[in-house]
Specification:
79 residues; mainly beta; 4 strands
């Protein structure tokens, strides 16, 4: 889970971008921190560049399926 120290630098935003699921290796729609839907592993991606690939981190036998990402944190100007 992403952590932060200064509460004044982050704010909650209800936006559809945070609900979108993207497949590993596809082009990131936003720059930010992405979270693996299956295991919670977090990584960064830049808009227009590939999201971390399928081999970016291992899944256990109890976490089957493709690595899929959801946006967790982004800059206000990205939305």
């Amino acid at each position: 889970m992403a952590l932060y120290y200064y509460p004044e630098v982050l704010k909650q935003k209800n936006h559809s971008a945070f609900g979108e699921t993207q497949i590993a290796g596809t082009s990131a729609r936003y720059t930010g921190i992405y979270r693996c839907v299956e295991c919670g592993f977090e990584d960064t991606a830049i808009r227009g560049r590939p999201l971390p690939p399928m081999n970016s981190h291992p899944h256990s036998a109890s976490q089957p399926g493709e690595i899929r990402w959801k946006l967790a944190v982004t800059h206000e100007g990205e939305l």
